[in-house]
Amino acid sequence: MYDLIAAFPSNIKESLEIASTKTFKAPKNKIQNILICGMGGSGIGGKLVAQWLQDELSVPVQLVQDYSFPSYVNEHTLVIGSSYSGDTEETIYCIEKAFQIGAHIIGICSGGKLESFCRQNDLDFVLVPGGNPPRTALAFSLGQLINILVQLDFVSATNLESFRKTTDLLESNAIEIKEEAHKLAAFLKDTFVMIYSASNYEAVAIRARQQFNENGKILCCHHTIPEMNHNELVGWGLGNNKYGALFLVTDDWHQRNVTRLQFSIDVIKSKTENIFILKAKGEDIIQRSIYLINLVDWASLYLSELNNVEAIEINVINNLKGQLSNLK
User: Fold this and answer.
1) Any idea what the Cα angle at residue 4 is, between residues 278 and 133, rounded to 5°?
2) What pLDDT digit, counting tens, does each position of 159-178 carry?
3) Measured distance CA(214)–CA(169) in Å, rounded
4) What's this model's pTM, rounded to 2 decimal places?
5) Domain boundaries in the chain?
6) Which CATH class is domain 2-164?
7) Could you tell me whether strands 275-279 and 243-249 are parallel, antiparallel, or unpaired per DSSP bridges?
8) CA angle 40, 43, 44 (to 5 degrees)
9) C-alpha distances out from residue 86 to 92, 116, 200, 283, 311, Å
10) Can you tell me the distance from the alpha carbon of 146 to that of 118, in angstroms, rounded to the nearest whole number?
C-alpha cells in the first residue's frame, strides 16, 4: 500500500497520457443529463468530478451507486460506467439497462465484463492499468472523467491543466504532507471521528471516510457545513472524548460558512478535546481536493500501522462478492 499511495502523482501523469490518446464518438442526440455509475473506489471519482465542475456544467450530473437509476434516463443521457475491475455488478446492471434504453454510453475500466460489453456493442471505453485495489486507482478515473467531459464540450480543457498541476503540488509538498498525515493518524487512533467539510467538498470527506474504513479498519462518519448546523451540531450536546471532529478546511468557503465553521469548532471544543483542523493547499477546487486526498491516503496507511492491521486487506468485501456470485 505504501508504494501504491506513493505512486499517486505518477498515476495522475499516466492518466493524462492515456486521456491524450482517446477520442470519443459524438452523441447521436443532444445530451440533457449525465449519469456516472460506479461503486466504492471506482465511484468516488464521479462525485469528485461532478462537484469540481458543477459551476461550469450546463447539464445535471448524478452519481448512481446501485442496481437501478432514475426514470429520466433516456436517449438524451450520457451514461459513464466507471468500474476499475470491469466486473462491478451494480455498474454492469446499470450499463446494460442504459444500453437497452438507448443512452450514450462510455466505459472506464481495466478489462472485465465492461470492456467486453463495450467491444461487443461498439461503445466507447477507456482502458486503464489494472491489478491493484480500486481505491488506489483514483487518479485514473479522475483523468478519464474530466477528459470525457472536455472532449464532449461540457467543460473547458483548463480543468485538465488544473489536474495536471496537482502533481507539482503533491511533489513539492511531499514532506509536509507525510508529516501532517502522521499527526492525523495519531489523532484518529482510538477515536470515533466525525469528518466535516464545506458542501462542495463533500466528495473529499466521503473519500476520507472510505480510506479510513478500508485502510485503517475504523468506523467514522461525515457531514457538511452548513447542513450540519441544522441538525448534527445539536447532537454534540452529550459529546465526550470518545468522539472527535476532523475539519477539512479550504480558503474558498462562502463568507457566511466561515462564520459557521468557527462557531461549530467552538461548540465542539466544549464537548471534546479531540479537534483536528486539516487545511488544504492549492489554487482551485481540483488542486485543494487532490492535496487533501493524498494527505488522507497517507494518514489512513499510518493509521493501519498504529492499529496493527493490514491496510490492503478487504476479506469481508471479497467474501460478500463470493456469496453474491453463487446467486442466480
Assistant:
1) 100
2) 999 999 999 999 999 999 99
3) 26
4) 0.96
5) 2-164, 173-306
6) alpha beta
7) parallel
8) 85
9) 8, 9, 29, 34, 23
10) 20
